[in-house]
Amino acid sequence: MQNNLSLLKKIQEIDIQINSAEEESRRLNADLERLSEEVKEYEARLETTRGELDGLEDMKRSFEDELAVCAERINKNETRLKNIKNDKEFNAATKELNAAKKEKQTKENEIARLNNETDEKKATIEEHENKLREKQAEIAAKNRTIEESKEKQEEWIKGKKDEKAAIARDIPPAVIKKYETIRERRQGVAIIPVVAGTCQGCYMNIPPQAYIQLQKGSSDLIFCPHCHRILYWHPSPGPSEQQKESAGQQSSN
């Protein structure tokens, strides 16, 4: 059974390597999804901002049309004033002229404001377009990285799985099944060392008799009574080594 334990430890090491490779692949794909979402956000912002710009330009054209009407009213009233003979008509034309000039000034101010807002929107659009190009380039680079590594990674994982299968052939199927069940339930770690009587998976003390059996190299697999992982003994520093270390620390102090 000690041989089984040794082989299971090799299998677990392979499983951990495979999990790490698969996790890296998931991380790359997650990064790609994140970048894709960011691209969609920038595209939505661009669409919104372009719509706002179109609205501003429509308003500006409307004000420019109204401004042209005001200019025409001013010209008409200035011409009319030259031909007026009495005070009443003069005052009415003057009032109309002043109102047209005031309205013209208001329209010009509105057009100036819209010009500023339009410039700001165009600058925002340019910024979003630059960001969008950056994200698209980042996605293209990420895609290349994934495609370049995918085939190699799949081949490497297949090799590791073949290696695992070759080792597993020398272990009883029931033992392999037990190992796989524990691994699935314990985040990929089915075999764990015991140090100074403590399981390093759940950090709970195991029964003294089980600890003694591990130290003696029991022919049976021994399981943690708390987390149910398969245990193996990992020697801790003996008293003499601890004393030497303590003495060294004291002398240095």
Mind sketching the topology for me?
Elements: H1 2-83, H2 87-168, H3 173-185, E1 191-195, E2 198-199, H4 208-216, E3 230-233, H5 239-252
Parallel strand pairs: 1-3
Antiparallel strand pairs: 1-2
Word description of this protein:
With 253 residues, the chain is mainly alpha-helical. It has 2 domains: 2-168, Helix Hairpins (Orthogonal Bundle), CATH 1.10.287.1490; 173-245, no CATH class. The protein is built from 5 helices and 3 strands. The protein has a 3-stranded mixed beta sheet with strand order 2-1-3. A hairpin with a 2-residue loop joins strand 1 and strand 2. The radius of gyration is 41 Å and the shape is rod-shaped. It starts with a helix and ends with a helix. The model is unreliable at 238-253 (pLDDT under 50).
